[in-house]
Design a protein that fits this description.
Elements: H1 10-16, H2 18-29, E1 30-31, E2 34-35, H3 37-42, E3 52-57, H4 59-76, E4 79-84, H5 85-88, E5 100-105, H6 111-123, E6 127-131, H7 137-141, E7 144-145, H8 160-180, H9 185-219, E8 225-230, H10 235-249, E9 252-257, E10 275-278, H11 286-305, E11 309-314, E12 326-330, H12 338-356
Parallel strand pairs: 3-4, 3-5, 5-6, 6-7, 8-9, 8-10, 10-11, 11-12
Antiparallel strand pairs: 1-2
């Protein structure tokens, strides 16, 4: 859909802008199928000799950090922790490891994340800022800046800035993997090719997702609560999907690791508390296949229990759709890029749930685009 005048709300417009935003962001860091040498040079000051990293962020940016934790550990063998910026900035004490600190913020002005950056610098940690504003305070004050090129985001719920954060974290993983020698040249090129193909793949699926999620929002509009489930890197997307639903539609939702469902949250399931389960798979990665098989086993139990389930699945999957109430297909992608695609139909579901409930989706109550003071 090329005529942006057809969009009723900024949030929907920005969901549709994600392919172009991703392409612009990739252009900052890639030249053809190569990592830009000047970016590699710029990243040199951002290191910790022991390979220790701390990510500080809030809201959606923290969820991108949760995904970044897994991909930096898996691709680069780094040791990564993720903290709420609001907690880190007032915890006191000193981390004697002096980990390299990544701060993530759409605006680059988020007060608690800025406070975390200030504290990291005071303690002597090297710092890296990922923001959608190259001239923001955070970008200026960090040792290294990795800006996004998402463009201005007017709707309060973050959409295109979130997917661009995921892309930049993946790119950081590629730069670090090359520097540390944890990825050979052939694998690096293959990952860049997959990343470059992703924006067009997402763009080609948007209209289908739009129709599907609009229908599901009508079907589930009376649900009072949702539980979102994901395993591994996809847990971050379960968290983000739940947050989007809360922000946009005022429907309560929580994101959990799928394996935690039977450790308490399962007691909540009823006709008014459906599940949203991320059940995609990358068959080329053994751990992804194990994750998928465990999720299928859980869904089989949930079917016996009579749970209502919406599942995100690979196109062509016949196993999961047979076990759930509704499924949403995604074109296959690599394990560490699937999250960028998975979140888009969840954004659309949140959008259409808000529409069903008559909510001004661009300006949810009690929220602002940037939290400038605590």
């Amino acid at each position: 859909m090329s005529d942006l005048q057809q969009f009723q709300h900024e949030m929907l417009r920005e969901i549709y802008e994600q392919s172009a935003a991703l392409d612009r962001t990739l252009a900052l860091y890639l030249e053809g199928n190569n990592l830009k040498s000047e970016v590699a040079e710029r990243l040199k000051p951002w290191t910790n000799p022991a390979g220790e990293v701390l990510i500080a962020a809030s809201g959606s940016s923290r969820h991108s950090g949760l995904a970044g934790e897994i991909l930096l550990e898996d691709l680069c063998a780094l040791s990564v922790d993720v903290e709420y910026a609001s907690e880190l900035s007032c915890r006191g004490g000193r981390d004697l490891r002096l980990p390299a600190v990544i701060v993530i913020s759409q605006s680059g002005e988020t007060s608690d994340t800025l406070a975390a950056l200030t504290e990291a610098k005071r303690c002597g940690s090297k710092t890296l800022a990922i923001t959608n504003a190259a001239d923001s305070t955070m970008a200026r004050e960090a040792d290294v800046s990795m800006p996004l090129a998402a463009g201005v985001e007017r709707a309060i719920p973050a959409t295109k800035s979130f997917t661009c954060e995921l892309a930049v974290l993946f790119l950081l993983g590629l730069y670090e993997a090359r520097r540390l020698g944890t990825m050979d040249a052939a694998e690096l090129t293959a990952n860049i090719e997959r990343l470059r193909a992703l924006p067009a793949s997402i763009g080609g699926q948007l209209d289908g997702w739009r129709d599907r999620m609009a229908a599901l929002a009508r079907k589930y509009s009376t649900a009072g609560n949702f539980l979102y489930l994901g395993r591994g890197i996809h847990y971050a997307i379960a968290r983000e999907g739940a947050l989007k639903l809360k922000e946009a539609s005022y429907v309560h939702a929580e994101g959990y690791p799928a394996g935690e469902l039977k450790h308490g949250p399962n007691a909540l399931l009823s006709d008014r508390v459906p599940l949203v389960v991320i059940a995609t798979v990358d068959p080329a990665i053994e751990a992804s296949v194990v994750r998928y098989e465990k999720t299928v086993h859980l869904l089989r139990e949930m079917k016996t229990q009579g749970a209502k389930v919406i599942a995100l699945v690979n196109a062509g999957d016949s196993d999961v759709p047979a076990l759930v109430s509704d499924s949403v297909e995604l074109q296959p992608a690599s394990e560490y890029l699937l999250p960028i695609a998975e979140v888009v139909p969840l954004q659309l579901f949140a959008y259409f749930m808000a529409i069903e409930r008559g909510i001004d989706v661009d300006r949810p109550r009690n929220l602002s685009k940037a939290v400038l003071e605590e």
